[in-house]
Amino acid sequence: MKLKYLLAASVVSLAATTTIATPVFAQQITTDIEGRVVDESGNPVAGAVVTVTNTATNATRTTTTGSDGAFRATALQPGGPYEVTANAGGFEGQTVQDVYTALGRPTAFTFTLTPSSGEDNVIIVSGARAGVTQLAVGPGQAFGVDTLERFPSITRDIRDIIRIDPRVSLDFDEVEGLDRISCLGGNDRSNTFTVDGIVQADVFGLNGTPFAARNSLPLPFDAIGQTSVEFAPFDVEYSDFTGCLVNVVTKSGSN
What we know:
This protein is mostly beta strands. It contains three helices and 16 strands. The longest helix has 16 residues, at about 1-15. The protein is elongated, with a radius of gyration of 24 Å.
Protein backbone atom coordinates (compact mmCIF):
# COMPACT_ATOMS: atom_id res chain seq x y z
CA MET A 1 0.00 0.00 0.00
CA LYS A 2 2.88 2.36 0.85
CA LEU A 3 4.47 1.61 -2.54
CA LYS A 4 1.18 2.48 -4.30
CA TYR A 5 1.07 5.91 -2.65
CA LEU A 6 4.70 6.57 -3.57
CA LEU A 7 4.02 5.68 -7.22
CA ALA A 8 0.93 7.91 -7.30
CA ALA A 9 2.86 10.83 -5.81
CA SER A 10 5.62 10.35 -8.39
CA VAL A 11 3.12 10.45 -11.24
CA VAL A 12 1.53 13.65 -9.90
CA SER A 13 4.95 15.24 -9.43
CA LEU A 14 6.00 14.28 -12.97
CA ALA A 15 2.75 15.69 -14.44
CA ALA A 16 3.22 18.93 -12.55
CA THR A 17 6.81 19.44 -13.71
CA THR A 18 6.58 18.18 -17.29
CA THR A 19 5.57 20.51 -20.12
CA ILE A 20 4.45 19.06 -23.44
CA ALA A 21 5.61 21.19 -26.34
CA THR A 22 2.81 21.87 -28.83
CA PRO A 23 2.97 24.03 -31.93
CA VAL A 24 1.22 27.38 -31.74
CA PHE A 25 -0.19 29.00 -34.85
CA ALA A 26 -1.35 32.62 -34.86
CA GLN A 27 -2.94 34.24 -37.86
CA GLN A 28 -3.96 37.85 -38.21
CA ILE A 29 -7.75 38.27 -37.76
CA THR A 30 -7.92 41.95 -36.80
CA THR A 31 -6.80 45.29 -38.17
CA ASP A 32 -5.44 48.59 -36.84
CA ILE A 33 -6.10 52.28 -37.31
CA GLU A 34 -3.03 54.46 -36.90
CA GLY A 35 -1.56 57.75 -38.03
CA ARG A 36 -0.40 61.20 -36.92
CA VAL A 37 -1.96 64.45 -35.79
CA VAL A 38 -0.13 67.60 -36.89
CA ASP A 39 -0.80 71.33 -37.11
CA GLU A 40 -0.88 73.42 -40.29
CA SER A 41 2.92 73.78 -40.20
CA GLY A 42 3.40 70.03 -40.01
CA ASN A 43 4.49 70.04 -36.37
CA PRO A 44 3.25 67.08 -34.28
CA VAL A 45 0.38 67.70 -31.88
CA ALA A 46 1.06 65.81 -28.67
CA GLY A 47 -1.75 64.83 -26.33
CA ALA A 48 -4.45 64.87 -29.00
CA VAL A 49 -7.32 62.48 -28.27
CA VAL A 50 -8.25 60.16 -31.12
CA THR A 51 -11.55 58.27 -30.85
CA VAL A 52 -12.32 55.32 -33.11
CA THR A 53 -15.96 54.21 -33.18
CA ASN A 54 -17.43 51.25 -35.01
CA THR A 55 -20.82 52.71 -35.93
CA ALA A 56 -22.26 49.23 -36.58
CA THR A 57 -21.66 48.08 -33.00
CA ASN A 58 -21.01 51.39 -31.16
CA ALA A 59 -17.74 49.92 -29.89
CA THR A 60 -15.34 52.77 -29.11
CA ARG A 61 -11.57 52.87 -28.74
CA THR A 62 -9.79 55.98 -27.44
CA THR A 63 -6.07 56.69 -27.66
CA THR A 64 -3.76 59.68 -27.17
CA THR A 65 -0.99 60.88 -29.45
CA GLY A 66 2.59 60.82 -28.22
CA SER A 67 5.27 63.48 -28.49
CA ASP A 68 5.63 62.70 -32.20
CA GLY A 69 1.88 63.11 -32.79
CA ALA A 70 1.46 59.41 -33.57
CA PHE A 71 -1.47 57.27 -32.47
CA ARG A 72 -2.54 53.67 -32.96
CA ALA A 73 -5.71 51.75 -32.14
CA THR A 74 -5.06 48.02 -32.40
CA ALA A 75 -7.06 44.77 -32.57
CA LEU A 76 -10.05 46.28 -34.35
CA GLN A 77 -12.71 44.25 -36.10
CA PRO A 78 -12.20 44.32 -39.89
CA GLY A 79 -14.86 46.10 -41.87
CA GLY A 80 -16.83 48.89 -40.33
CA PRO A 81 -17.96 51.50 -40.98
CA TYR A 82 -15.73 53.36 -38.55
CA GLU A 83 -15.77 56.98 -37.47
CA VAL A 84 -12.40 58.45 -36.50
CA THR A 85 -12.22 61.75 -34.58
CA ALA A 86 -9.14 63.75 -33.55
CA ASN A 87 -9.41 66.46 -30.87
CA ALA A 88 -6.76 68.67 -29.30
CA GLY A 89 -6.85 71.75 -27.11
CA GLY A 90 -6.63 74.96 -29.09
CA PHE A 91 -7.55 73.26 -32.37
CA GLU A 92 -10.72 72.46 -34.25
CA GLY A 93 -11.43 68.77 -34.09
CA GLN A 94 -11.82 66.66 -37.22
CA THR A 95 -13.94 63.59 -37.95
CA VAL A 96 -13.76 61.17 -40.86
CA GLN A 97 -16.85 59.02 -41.37
CA ASP A 98 -17.58 55.80 -43.25
CA VAL A 99 -14.10 54.36 -42.95
CA TYR A 100 -13.85 50.68 -43.91
CA THR A 101 -10.86 48.68 -42.76
CA ALA A 102 -9.33 45.63 -44.41
CA LEU A 103 -8.25 42.37 -42.81
CA GLY A 104 -4.64 42.58 -41.64
CA ARG A 105 -4.07 45.94 -43.37
CA PRO A 106 -3.74 48.95 -41.05
CA THR A 107 -5.58 52.10 -42.10
CA ALA A 108 -3.43 55.22 -41.70
CA PHE A 109 -4.55 58.84 -41.21
CA THR A 110 -2.81 62.19 -41.13
CA PHE A 111 -5.00 64.75 -39.40
CA THR A 112 -3.97 68.36 -40.02
CA LEU A 113 -5.71 70.45 -37.37
CA THR A 114 -6.40 74.17 -37.70
CA PRO A 115 -6.32 76.61 -34.77
CA SER A 116 -9.62 77.02 -32.98
CA SER A 117 -11.60 80.24 -33.03
CA GLY A 118 -12.37 79.86 -29.34
CA GLU A 119 -15.15 77.26 -29.59
CA ASP A 120 -14.71 73.52 -29.34
CA ASN A 121 -15.87 72.63 -32.84
CA VAL A 122 -15.52 69.31 -34.60
CA ILE A 123 -15.76 69.44 -38.37
CA ILE A 124 -16.39 66.52 -40.72
CA VAL A 125 -13.67 66.19 -43.34
CA SER A 126 -13.20 63.88 -46.31
CA GLY A 127 -10.86 60.94 -46.31
CA ALA A 128 -8.70 62.71 -48.90
CA ARG A 129 -8.10 65.63 -46.56
CA ALA A 130 -7.14 63.27 -43.74
CA GLY A 131 -4.85 61.34 -46.09
CA VAL A 132 -6.45 57.93 -45.51
CA THR A 133 -4.35 55.04 -46.83
CA GLN A 134 -4.22 51.30 -46.24
CA LEU A 135 -0.86 49.79 -45.36
CA ALA A 136 -0.09 46.27 -46.57
CA VAL A 137 1.93 43.72 -44.62
CA GLY A 138 3.24 42.24 -47.85
CA PRO A 139 1.97 41.11 -51.25
CA GLY A 140 -1.64 40.06 -51.00
CA GLN A 141 -5.22 41.23 -51.34
CA ALA A 142 -8.21 41.56 -49.04
CA PHE A 143 -11.87 41.19 -49.99
CA GLY A 144 -14.57 42.83 -47.91
CA VAL A 145 -18.21 41.95 -47.44
CA ASP A 146 -19.22 44.25 -50.31
CA THR A 147 -17.15 42.17 -52.74
CA LEU A 148 -18.45 38.92 -51.28
CA GLU A 149 -22.06 40.04 -51.69
CA ARG A 150 -21.76 41.54 -55.17
CA PHE A 151 -19.43 39.11 -56.90
CA PRO A 152 -21.35 36.35 -58.73
CA SER A 153 -20.49 32.92 -57.36
CA ILE A 154 -22.31 29.89 -58.72
CA THR A 155 -20.62 27.43 -56.37
CA ARG A 156 -20.72 29.85 -53.38
CA ASP A 157 -17.17 28.89 -52.53
CA ILE A 158 -14.36 31.14 -51.35
CA ARG A 159 -12.30 29.93 -54.31
CA ASP A 160 -14.56 31.97 -56.59
CA ILE A 161 -13.55 35.12 -54.72
CA ILE A 162 -9.82 34.72 -54.26
CA ARG A 163 -9.25 33.99 -57.95
CA ILE A 164 -9.94 37.70 -58.56
CA ASP A 165 -6.29 38.12 -57.57
CA PRO A 166 -4.22 37.46 -60.72
CA ARG A 167 -1.63 35.57 -58.68
CA VAL A 168 -4.22 32.91 -57.83
CA SER A 169 -5.38 30.32 -60.34
CA LEU A 170 -7.72 27.36 -60.05
CA ASP A 171 -6.50 24.10 -61.55
CA PHE A 172 -9.26 21.58 -62.16
CA ASP A 173 -8.39 18.09 -60.93
CA GLU A 174 -10.22 15.55 -63.10
CA VAL A 175 -9.53 12.71 -60.68
CA GLU A 176 -10.94 14.49 -57.63
CA GLY A 177 -13.43 16.55 -59.66
CA LEU A 178 -12.58 19.83 -57.93
CA ASP A 179 -10.60 23.04 -58.33
CA ARG A 180 -7.22 23.23 -56.65
CA ILE A 181 -5.82 26.60 -55.54
CA SER A 182 -2.48 27.40 -57.12
CA CYS A 183 -0.73 30.50 -55.77
CA LEU A 184 2.08 31.90 -57.91
CA GLY A 185 2.12 28.63 -59.82
CA GLY A 186 2.78 26.50 -56.74
CA ASN A 187 1.16 23.29 -55.51
CA ASP A 188 -1.97 23.67 -53.39
CA ARG A 189 -0.43 21.53 -50.65
CA SER A 190 1.93 24.41 -49.84
CA ASN A 191 -1.05 26.65 -48.99
CA THR A 192 -2.95 26.94 -45.74
CA PHE A 193 -6.46 27.99 -44.82
CA THR A 194 -7.60 29.64 -41.59
CA VAL A 195 -10.96 30.67 -40.15
CA ASP A 196 -10.86 33.29 -37.39
CA GLY A 197 -7.19 32.52 -36.84
CA ILE A 198 -7.68 28.76 -36.48
CA VAL A 199 -6.03 26.51 -39.05
CA GLN A 200 -8.66 24.62 -41.05
CA ALA A 201 -6.26 23.08 -43.53
CA ASP A 202 -5.86 19.37 -44.17
CA VAL A 203 -2.71 19.07 -42.09
CA PHE A 204 -2.54 15.28 -42.48
CA GLY A 205 -2.91 15.26 -46.27
CA LEU A 206 -5.87 12.86 -46.27
CA ASN A 207 -8.36 14.90 -48.30
CA GLY A 208 -8.46 15.79 -51.97
CA THR A 209 -7.98 19.48 -51.14
CA PRO A 210 -5.96 21.38 -48.55
CA PHE A 211 -9.25 22.19 -46.79
CA ALA A 212 -10.31 20.31 -43.68
CA ALA A 213 -13.58 19.50 -45.45
CA ARG A 214 -13.49 16.87 -48.22
CA ASN A 215 -14.35 18.96 -51.27
CA SER A 216 -15.69 22.35 -50.23
CA LEU A 217 -15.34 25.32 -47.93
CA PRO A 218 -15.87 24.12 -44.34
CA LEU A 219 -18.25 26.95 -43.39
CA PRO A 220 -21.31 28.65 -44.93
CA PHE A 221 -20.48 31.25 -47.56
CA ASP A 222 -22.89 33.77 -45.99
CA ALA A 223 -20.98 33.58 -42.70
CA ILE A 224 -17.84 35.13 -44.20
CA GLY A 225 -17.18 38.75 -43.25
CA GLN A 226 -13.81 39.26 -44.92
CA THR A 227 -11.12 37.16 -46.53
CA SER A 228 -7.59 37.83 -47.68
CA VAL A 229 -4.89 36.08 -49.67
CA GLU A 230 -1.37 36.57 -48.34
CA PHE A 231 1.66 35.46 -50.36
CA ALA A 232 4.77 36.63 -48.51
CA PRO A 233 3.78 38.73 -45.49
CA PHE A 234 6.54 39.94 -43.19
CA ASP A 235 4.20 39.93 -40.18
CA VAL A 236 5.33 37.20 -37.76
CA GLU A 237 1.70 36.43 -36.91
CA TYR A 238 1.35 34.65 -40.26
CA SER A 239 2.78 31.14 -40.45
CA ASP A 240 2.46 27.55 -41.61
CA PHE A 241 2.61 28.04 -45.38
CA THR A 242 5.03 28.57 -48.24
CA GLY A 243 2.49 29.11 -51.05
CA CYS A 244 -0.26 31.39 -49.80
CA LEU A 245 -2.57 31.84 -46.86
CA VAL A 246 -6.33 32.06 -47.41
CA ASN A 247 -7.42 33.90 -44.28
CA VAL A 248 -11.15 34.12 -43.47
CA VAL A 249 -12.87 36.10 -40.72
CA THR A 250 -16.52 35.38 -40.05
CA LYS A 251 -19.22 37.98 -39.55
CA SER A 252 -20.12 39.26 -36.11
CA GLY A 253 -23.43 40.43 -34.78
CA SER A 254 -24.47 44.04 -34.36
CA ASN A 255 -25.09 45.70 -31.02
